[in-house]
Design goal:
Elements: E1 2-3, E2 16-20, E3 25-31, E4 38-42, E5 45-51, H1 56-65, H2 67-79, E6 93-96, E7 99-107, E8 111-116, E9 119-124, H3 130-161, E10 167-171, E11 178-180, E12 185-189, H4 197-212, H5 218-227, H6 231-241
């Protein structure tokens, strides 16, 4: 395994780092909120949530012990992926907030995706798993930016709607762009960040309005219309273009 996990000047570890394992890349998420390690596999990406000071050697050993189980889970998730026209190679275009950005894939020790001079740039190992690892790097990048952008948009519209959500989350949904709970939590599908700004605004306003009106009654749509006058066009855009907002 290759890793970029090194001690900081204060003797602690960085909150997030990556381990390049045999056949996959694991994101190491350090937090004080857990007492034991927990391996998660979502969207064909591996993450390990661990106590903040857990030595890297312990994490490497855990991943070795669970290597077979992880690969089996990854294989099942990859088989369930929808058919994609993407090969995750240099030159392909991927949409972010309505604009297309070309992918640049470098080969070497894994490095997370970055947007540099208008290009999405990642470094992945040059082996048979490079396409999967490049896709995972893209998903991690999208999720991170979805969390930041959607939080900004929620902050922008919450006062206008007159409601403040208790929490904001990013999830993977198969057939919805967002959801809200009776406890005031809103979860967004990270894939919506591929859509143009005004479409993302509509989804944010839609979920905020649900915190005040939990159905799709005329009263609800009137509330949405006050902030998104062309909400009908936004709904139609999502219906027509949903198949394009995929990786």
């Amino acid at each position: 395994m290759k890793q970029d996990d090194s001690l900081l000047a204060n003797g602690s570890f960085p909150a997030n780092s990556f381990l390049q394992c045999n056949g996959f890349v694991a994101e190491i998420i350090r937090t004080r909120r857990v007492k034991s390690a927990d391996i998660k596999i979502e969207d064909c990406a591996v993450s390990v949530v661990v106590p903040r000071q857990l030595p890297i050697e312990r994490i490497e050993q855990l991943l070795k012990e669970k290597n077979r189980w992880i690969k089996e889970k990854l294989s099942l998730q990859r088989e369930a992926l929808p058919v994609s026209s993407k090969d995750y190679i240099s030159g392909e275009a991927f949409c972010y907030l309505g604009r297309n950005y070309r992918l640049k894939v470098n080969y070497g020790a894994f490095q997370p995706m970055k947007l540099i001079h208008g290009r999405l740039v990642a470094t992945v190992p040059n082996n048979s798993d490079q396409a999967h690892i490049a896709r995972n790097a893209l998903i991690r990048w999208y999720k991170t930016h979805a969390e930041l952008r959607l939080q900004d948009k929620v902050n922008r519209y919450a006062n206008t709607v007159g409601i403040e959500p208790k929490a904001i989350g990013i999830k993977t949904f198969k057939s919805r762009w967002g959801s809200c709970s009776s406890k005031g939590r809103i979860d967004f599908n990270w894939k919506i960040i591929m859509a143009p700004h005004h479409i993302v605004d509509y989804v944010v306003v839609h979920e905020l309005c649900h915190l005040k009106q939990h159905d799709h009654s005329p009263k609800f749509w009137k509330l949405v219309e006050q902030m998104i006058p062309d909400y009908v066009d936004c709904k139609e855009w999502l219906k027509v273009n949903e198949r394009l907002l995929v990786l």
